[in-house]
Amino acid sequence: MQVPFDDYAQAAGVATELVNTAPCVWNGTDKLSDVAELETFVTTHVPASWAPGLDAAVPTDDDLAATHGLRDALRTLIDSGDAQEIVRRATELTGSVGTLSLAVDDDVTRWQAITAPEAPLADQLGLLTGVGVLGVTHALGVERFRSCASPDCAGVFIDTSRNGARRYCMPGLCGNRVNVAAHRARQRAQ
Predict the structure, then answer these.
(1) Claim: this prediction has a pTM higher than 0.70
(2) Whether the Cβ atoms of residue 135 and residue 8 lie closer than 8 Å to each other
(3) Where would I find the Zinc finger CGNR domain in this sequence (predicted)?
(4) Most buried in the list 25, 26, 154, 169, measured by CB within 10 Å?
């Protein structure tokens, strides 16, 4: 896997998506309960340019268990709210890095982290999400690590929006639920 540091917002988005597959977010339903769902998650959320061939790899039960561990570690990291703790934990996630390098494409130079080709899937996802977390922490600050504003949701997210005004872990779901509830309350009040 090759993760460019300048794409930290997209990498942080993968971290948010992974954390929000947990049963605590979906009222006991694990959205990453088997290897098929893990495979779908990887092909949906990890850019093919970052991980050539990763989408062709078939995850194993060991990959699934390790990814669940990564998901729990990311949840703890996002919930901590402490800059030093976030940086320490994210740095641990990037521990599987094979090399750091400069990539030059069409006269554009960028830093990237590259995992060893044989690195397990969870280590590759750890690198990806760790780079995202470290990038957001450096560029935007730890106040961008938040809990969902929906009263019925236990989700968390990393806000990489330009103005930092995101309120919901899944705006299309949680945000819509809150808006519909508010609309119905106004209708009843009239």
Answers:
(1) yes
(2) yes
(3) 144-187
(4) 169
One-letter identity of residue 173: L
Q: Is 160 helix (H, G, I), strand (E, B) or coil?
A: coil
| CA dist., res. 31 & res. 157, Å (int) | 16
Compute the half-sphere exposure of residue 118: CA atoms within 13 Å on the CB side of its CA: 0
For residue 15, the number of C-alpha atoms closer than 13 Å in the C-beta half-sphere is 35
Domains of the chain: 2-189 (1.10.3300.10)
Residues 8-64 have pLDDT tens digits of: 899 999 999 999 999 999 989 999 999 999 999 998 998 877 776 665 678 899 999
Residue 66 near residue 85, CB atoms below 8 Å: no
Paired residues of 101 in beta bridges: 112
Distance CA 90, CA 134 (A): 6
Three-class DSSP labels, 27-69 = CCCCCCCCHHHHHHHHHHHCCCCCCCCHHHCCCCHHHHHHHHH
Beta-strand (E) ranges in the chain? 2-4, 97-105, 108-115, 145-147, 156-158
H/E stretch holding 106: none
